[in-house]
Each structure stands twice: as structure tokens, then as C-alpha cells.
Amino acid sequence: MTADHITLPAPAKLNxxxxxxxxxADGYHTLQTAFQFINRADxxxxxxxxxxxxxxxxxxxxxxxxxxxxxxxxRALKAATGSSxxxxxxxxxxxxxxxxxxxxxxxxxxxLLALNTLWETQxxxxxxxxxxxxLGADVPVFVHGHAAWAEGIGEQLTAITLDEPWxxxxxxxxxxxxxxxxxxxxxxxxxxxxxxRDLNAxxxxxxxxxxxxxxxxxxxxxxxxxxxxxDAKMTGTGACVFLACSNQGLAADILAASPVSGFICRGxxxxxxxxxxxxxxxxxxx
Length: 286
Ligand SMILES: C[C@@](CO)(OP(=O)(O)O)[C@H](O)COP(=O)(O)OP(=O)(O)OC[C@H]1O[C@@H](n2ccc(N)nc2=O)[C@H](O)[C@@H]1O
Ligand SMILES: Nc1ncnc2c1ncn2[C@@H]1O[C@H](COP(=O)(O)OP(=O)(O)O)[C@@H](O)[C@H]1O
Hints:
By secondary structure, the protein is α+β, with helices and mostly antiparallel strands. It contains 9 helices and 10 strands. Strands 1, 2, 3, 4, 5, 6, 7, 8, 9 and 10 form a 10-stranded mixed beta sheet that branches. Helix 2 crosses helix 3 and helix 6 crosses helix 7. The longest helix has 16 residues. The site of 4-diphosphocytidyl-2-C-methyl-D-erythritol 2-phosphate (SUD) has 20 residues, from strand 1, strand 2 and helix 5.
């Protein structure tokens, strides 16, 4: 059975820690981080078009359609493969933008996975990740779809298996642009490199916290409040902050008491996008 459309989630990620270890000659920073996916996602719908056109609805506030990472991913895949096909794409946006949850990068990765399948262009995950890296440093981990230890500028990935706890994620109303956080004079750029085995040794932090707490008081307040319950951290360059909890009930109780809005979710080592893609392939292609 064939099908000309597919729906995939584009899940968020958390950076369980984030250390900046240096700066390259081209200005990009080298870092160490651990990525885990969560079951909170945008939803991407793609349908094949035979006229070669690419369309995307709805428009996102403050992002021109041509700059939307979904359109950029679709165009990049078309250029890389020479496919004559197009797509009608619809995105149900649920993830806050610029929150450090990687929604834009995940939308791009799910677009690459969806169109590579519908167009039957058969690029490997490595090839899709290389296309994705040109769109953003966070895209490859979503393409590969496994929780990962990351080095380099975030593109050198080692798959890891982590506990899959419940999390409380708070979404303070603040927007910190990634490039602005990276160029800030207060950013520590020389954290000592750690080993994977130190991940749970209590020695990790997010080096962006100092900068972002200074730029965005709402993030500072959210971190202060959540820290009373445990080792709260910010994800990426913020603004979202999170805390791992021993069970769902505790996560729900903390969220209910929080003065800042947010959600609870579960950590996933395998990306929900890959789970959905495998299901689709089993139904339609095998
Ligand atoms: C910090 C992280 C951690 O996961 O996440 P976010 O908070 O953005 O989600 C990422 O490394 C962000 O990746 P991503 O959001 O894809 O950033 P990009 O679009 O590649 O880069 C935006 C800008 O940030 C700076 N940048 C980015 C990555 C890096 N390793 N060094 C940098 O200096 C560069 O100035 C670049 O032009
Ligand atoms: N499909 C998209 N979804 C979200 N943001 C997008 C998208 N396409 C482009 N962007 C741009 O990318 C920026 C970063 O988005 P996002 O990935 O949500 O945040 P972060 O990098 O902080 O995790 C947004 O502020 C927006 O300008």
C-alpha cells in the first residue's frame, strides 16, 4: 500500500547540561551537552505534490515563510536530491519559540524525515543530518533520533541511554536569541571538558544561566522558584527551565504550585518522530 501523506511529531529536546569549552576561529563555540527528547511536540503534516511546489501553512508570527526552517529544510532536500516532487505542508505549532526546546530545529528534522520518505529519495540519516547541520547546530540530533552526548558545535553525537524521568518544564515569558547569548561578554567560554561518566556526578550546569538570568529577570525568578525542589536547570540558551522528578505525581504537584506557567512531560531516549515514522513505514511501505 502506498500513501501520499504523512503526519509526524516534531518533539522538543532538553539540554540536560550545557558547557561551553572553547571558541573556534569561525566564531562558533565548542560545547558539551546531553540531549534528551520529551513527549511535547509540534505536529507536521506533509502531502506530496506532483507540480514540484512547496507550500507551508500557517505563517508563524515574526518568521517569513522563506526563513521558516521547515521551508528551508524542504528546499535543501529538493536541491540535494534533485527530486521533481513538491509538498503541501501544515504545522501545528505547540512548542514555544526561542525557548531552548529546539522546536524550529525539530520541525526542520521532521520535515527532512517526512519528505525523504514521501519523495522516496532514500538519503541515509547521516546524509539528512549533514543537510540539517547547515540549517542549525541542533538539527542533526533530531534527525538521528536518539538521546545523545554531543561535542564539537553540537554535531558530534554519541547515542546514550539515560533514565527517562518525568520533568516539570516552566516557560517564563522571555525570549533570548541564541546568537545574542553566545556573543555575550559574561559567557564562560573555557569550561573544562568532562567525561560522559561524569554526567550524573553532580558536576554539570548550564553555562548560559548566568548570562540569561542577567538578560531576562523572568528566567532568574523561574530558576529560583524551581530550585527549591531540586537541581533545576535551564535548557539551551533559555528561556525554559526544567527539573527531573521521581514520579508523575510529584511533577504535577510542583507544576500546580508554580507561579510560572509550564507543563509536565516524560523524557524519551528515542525520538517520538522516529517511533511515528517506523509505524508509518510498517503500514504503508513494507
Ligand atoms: C545552544 C543550543 C544547545 O542545544 O540550543 P538552543 O538554545 O538554541 O536551542 C544550540 O547549540 C544552538 O543551536 P541552534 O539553535 O541550532 O543554533 P544555530 O542556528 O546553529 O546558531 C545560531 C548562532 O549561535 C551562535 N552559535 C551557535 C552554536 C554554536 N555551537 N556556537 C555558536 O556560537 C552563532 O553565532 C550562530 O550564528
Ligand atoms: N518552524 C520554526 N519554528 C520555530 N522557530 C522557527 C521556525 N523557523 C524559524 N524559526 C526561528 O528560529 C528561532 C529559534 O526557534 P526555536 O528552535 O523554537 O528555539 P530555540 O533555538 O531557542 O530552541 C525562532 O525564534 C524563529 O525566529
